[in-house]
Amino acid sequence: MAAGESRRWGADNKLLAPIEGRPMIRNTAEAVLKSAVRPLLVVTGHDADGIARALEGLPVSFHPAPDFADGMSASLKAGIAAVPAHCDAALICLGDMPFVSAATFDRLAEAYEGQAALFPTYRGQRGNPVVLSRALFGAIRNLSGDKGARELLRSIPDQVAEIAVDDPGTLRDVDRPDALRDTLRS
What we know:
about 20% strand; alpha/beta; 9 strands; two-stranded antiparallel sheet
């Protein structure tokens, strides 16, 4: 998901901020592409042209969220609407989490067994990305506002699973410039 306005970041689009010389969103996409997870669908909204330029040459498809300013639910709904019919689930990756390893994406895909949702945990703390079952897609289409599927998943705790991963990147999102600076120092 790369449609947000980066309000907490400031004037610039955080997804275009450089990490080791490449835009943050490109780091995220390249990590996914090193895994077996396919296809890679990129939801765009704010600065769609900048995101497309940052991902130029990568085997991704772009899916606009015209109402992206309504919040995270708009991005999630646009992404879910684009999932091909042959896919049983969607692995929801956040563009501002460029430190998740390809091995984690593969581990989540391999561990998915039809649960409504599957989260990675690192040292007991739930992180991202999350696998969402096609069985939830209808309910996701009814979401609104600046929230994802969290409330929906809280209503079905017995259908949500977790898998431990050895990847601190599942907890490292970059919402503010100081978070990126702190991350690069660690």
